[in-house]
Structures are given as C-alpha cells and as structure tokens.
Design brief:
Helix 3 runs antiparallel to helix 9, helix 7 runs antiparallel to helix 8 and helix 9 runs antiparallel to helix 12. The chain folds into two domains: 49 residues; 222 residues, Orthogonal Bundle (MetI-like fold). With 301 residues, it is an all-alpha fold. 73% of the residues lie in helices and 0% in strands.
Length: 301
C-alpha cells in the first residue's frame, strides 16, 4: 500500500512538472510578443519626441538619411501597398484555382503528390526569390514593357505572389476539403455540374477558411523583406506606379540596420517608428482574419 502511494505521489509530481513545462512553452510566445511591443514602443516614443506625428502621417517625402530631412511614412506605405497588391493579384486567383482543382477535380493520389510539391515553394529562401525577380523576371518583363525600370515594384510583386501562392492554395484547399460530402451529394442530386458544386456550394461553405488564407497571405506579403530589398530599388517615393523603383517599410529597415547609422540618432530611431507602423498593419490584418473566420464560419453536425 505504501509503495502504491509513493508511486501515486511521484506521478502527481511528474504531472505537475509536465503541466508547468507546457505552461512555460505556451507563455513563451506571449512574453516574446510583449517584449517586442515594449522595445518598439519606447524607441518610437523617443522618435516622436523629435518628429511631429502629423508630419510622420501626412508628409509624402521620406529622407531621414539626407541633409534635408523629411519623415513622411506615406512614401514607404505606398511602396508596401503596391507590391502587396500585385502579389495578391497573382496569388489569389491562382491559389483559388489550384485549391478548387485539388479539392474537387483531382484524384486523391494526385492530391497527395502535388500538394507537397506546391508547398515546396514556401520553403525556398526569399533571397533566392529576390535574385530571381531581379535577374530573370525583370529582364523578361522588359521585353514586353520597354519603359520598365531595372528596379521596379512589378517584378518583386509578381515573384512575391508566387512565393505566397502555397499559403493561399493550401489553406483554401484544406477549408474546401473539410466541407462535408453530404453537401456535394445533395447538389449533385439536384442536377448540378461539378463546376457548379465547386463554385456555388463548396467555395461558399469554405469561405471562412478561404478569407483567412487571403488575409494571412497579405500579412506575409506586407512583411516580406529580401525580395523587395533586392529587386524594388530602395527609392522611397509616394507613387502607385509599379514600373518605377520604390521602397517598402521592410526594405528601409534593412537599409538602416546595416550598421552605418549610429545608434541613438534620429536616423536610427526611424527604423523603430517604421517597425511600429508595420506591426500595427500586421496586427490589424490578423484581427481582420479572426473576424472573418468567426463571421463566415459554418458549423456542420
């Protein structure tokens, strides 16, 4: 009896240790996020002691590294927006078509083979995508668009769309695959074609997951660094013209973080202000994703 109680006592201690370890692991991401927010907040607060927040949000020039300094974040926001928009114009239609085919048309064997191959695109280093955009896609586009600059927003936007394509297609296909077969069978019983079932039954039923994949893909595009750093040109300008050099928020952060700018200067603090802007954008997109997921969620029993 005593040995049994000892084993039970040791087992309870072991379970409590496991519980504490799992709680620590679960809390790690929360503490990391809080640390990032605090690091950004204090440096951004110091930045706005020297720069007017009105100028930061309304000025269309961004030249903190020049003698004539301007701190208008709109130039970087415009570059980030145009590249992300081009990427989504590539990733959304191709991703949805891939997801519909894999979910509704392909055989299970074909799906098992093709889906992992498609997801390999997400594992390619982004620096490789950057040089692919600069050395292959840009010269190819120049043959069709003579006025295209050597550095531009169009080329990295297209390549970024290819990079995030697996995120859209895989998550959308998972959402479609989770739709109950009874809905498909009911539509077929009413005389619907396979295309009608896919577009008018399966896609609406899986809309929550599909919309979430869109928003998460946008978040990934907004935060992409190496592709735009290499191929976009690092020239901040308030323009939505995809044929000219631009600079995104992430590319600027890389530019200043190379070590040439002394720490503690107003120029160095700009990367924290830009990083806070990017963090707010990404947070807003994640909140929108969660809202869409709850708003369009369909529960089947």
């Amino acid at each position: 009896m005593k040995s049994f109680l000892d084993r039970r006592s040791r087992q309870r201690i072991f379970e409590r240790g496991i519980h504490a370890a799992l709680l620590l692991c679960a809390s790690l991401s929360i503490f990391t996020t809080i640390g990032i927010i605090l690091a950004l907040f204090f440096e951004t607060f110091d930045f706005f002691k020297e720069v007017s927040i009105i100028e930061f949000l309304t000025d269309t020039q961004w030249t903190p590294l020049f003698v004539d300094k301007h701190f208008g974040i709109l130039s970087l926001v415009a570059g980030t927006f145009i590249v992300s928009l081009i990427a989504m114009c590539v990733a959304i239609p191709l991703g949805i078509l891939c997801a519909i085919y894999l979910s509704e048309y392909s055989s299970p064997r074909f799906r098992e083979v093709v889906k992992p191959i498609l997801e390999v695109l997400a594992g390619i280093p982004t620096v490789v995508y950057g040089y692919f955009a600069l050395l292959f896609v840009t010269p190819l586009l120049k043959s069709f668009i003579p006025g295209l600059s050597g550095f531009n927003a169009l080329s990295p936007g297209i390549v970024m769309g290819i990079m995030i394509l697996p995120m859209v297609s895989s998550m959308s296909e998972d959402a479609m695959h989770a739709v109950p077969s009874s809905l498909r069978e009911g539509a077929y019983a009413l005389g619907a074609t396979r295309f009608q079932v896919a577009t008018k039954v399966v896609v609406p039923a899986a809309l929550s997951g599909i919309m979430s994949s869109f928003v998460l893909a946008v978040s990934r595009a907004v935060g992409e660094t190496m592709i735009v750093t290499i191929a976009a040109g690092q020239q901040p300008r308030f323009s939505l013209n995809p044929l000219v050099p631009i600079e995104t928020i992430t590319a600027y952060i890389v530019q200043v973080s190379l070590g040439d700018t002394p720490a503690g200067t107003i120029e160095h603090k700009t990367i924290f202000a830009a990083g806070m802007t990017l963090f707010i954008f990404t947070l807003a997109l994640n909140l929108i994703s969660n809202w869409l997921k709850e708003r369009f969620r369909e529960e089947y029993r």
